[in-house]
Amino acid sequence: MAVGWFYLSALALFSLGSMCILSTIYWMRYWHKGFAWDGTILTFNWHPVLMVTGMVVLYSAASLAYRLPQSWVGPKLPWKLGHAAMHLMAFILTVLGLAAVFNFHNHEKIPNLYSLHSWLGITTVFLFACQWFLGFVVFLLPWASVRLRSLLKPIHVFFGASILSLAIASVISGINEKLFFSLKNGTTSYSNLPDEAVFANSAGMLVVVFGLLVLYILQASSWKRPEPGLQAERQTLLHGEE
């Protein structure tokens, strides 16, 4: 039953994650004229797409690597490598997303890091970088003792979920900030909910639902990789034996 619910949740996650990315792309293309890398507002349009893709969707996929039933048995190293590689890809996309917004601000002589959204976002990326480095040094390289890994594992897990929560908060505040700026001088104010506001608010709610489902799966004890003493029980569950 736990395996069936996991795959059902994974299908829902894949659908929601795809919708989050595609809706952000559509928002930037339909209402904000698409993408470029020339320092103009079209460069900025990469920022929300890359941040949603990297910091929310791909980060979540990497975090859930150990929840796959196939990871319950066999050697753990391939899953560690996959976990680290997906997080690294998420970090690269996130850095590109930051480069897009800094490039745009510098080109247009707009101050950097003045809003609460930017403070929250840069804090999230900083914690992500620290988290990845700690995970690589302690959990992937072979030098760390079992005692040290056991001591740091709860901290690593806590910050993993916290960074995702901060990323979702950053995306939501960023959507709100973008709408205030883009609709401020428009013919229809944000408070009157023009089509763009309805669409972007809906995209934000998709991100929230996606994030909540990821956090639920991360904390569900029945989907965690078992301790060595429970391996036999999980192997039975995987093979449908009694």
Automatic annotation (TrEMBL):
**Native species of this protein?**
Sus scrofa (Pig)
Q: Which reaction does it catalyse?
A: Fe(3+)(out) + L-ascorbate(in) = monodehydro-L-ascorbate radical(in) + Fe(2+)(out) + H(+)
Q: In its keyword annotation, does this UniProt entry include Transport? A: yes
Summary of subunit composition and partner proteins: Homodimer.
What name has this protein been given in UniProt?
Lysosomal membrane ascorbate-dependent ferrireductase CYB561A3
Q: What does this protein do?
A: Transmembrane reductase that uses ascorbate as an electron donor in the cytoplasm and transfers electrons across membranes to reduce iron cations Fe(3+) into Fe(2+) in the lumen of the late endosome and lysosome. Reduced iron can then be extruded from the late endosome and lysosome to the cytoplasm by divalent metal-specific transporters. It is therefore most probably involved in endosomal and lysosomal cellular iron homeostasis.
Q: Which Pfam families match?
A: Cytochrom_B561
Cofactor(s) the record lists:
heme b
What top-level class of enzyme does the UniProt entry assign? Answer: translocase
**Where is the chain membrane-spanning?**
7-28, 48-69, 81-104, 116-143, 155-175, 198-218
Iron recorded as keyword: yes
Indicate how the chain sits in the lipid bilayer.
Multi-pass membrane protein
Q: What are the entry keywords?
A: Electron transport, Endosome, Glycoprotein, Heme, Iron, Lysosome, Membrane, Metal-binding, Oxidoreductase, Translocase, Transmembrane, Transmembrane helix, Transport
Give the UniProt subcellular location, in the record's own words.
Answer: Late endosome membrane; Lysosome membrane
Any single Gene Ontology cellular-component annotation = late endosome membrane
Q: Which InterPro entries match?
A: CYB561/CYBRD1-like, Cyt_b561/ferric_Rdtase_TM
Which Enzyme Commission number(s) are listed? 7.2.1.3
Where does the record place the Cytochrome b561 domain?
12-219
Gene Ontology terms, MF aspect: metal ion binding; oxidoreductase activity; transmembrane ascorbate ferrireductase activity
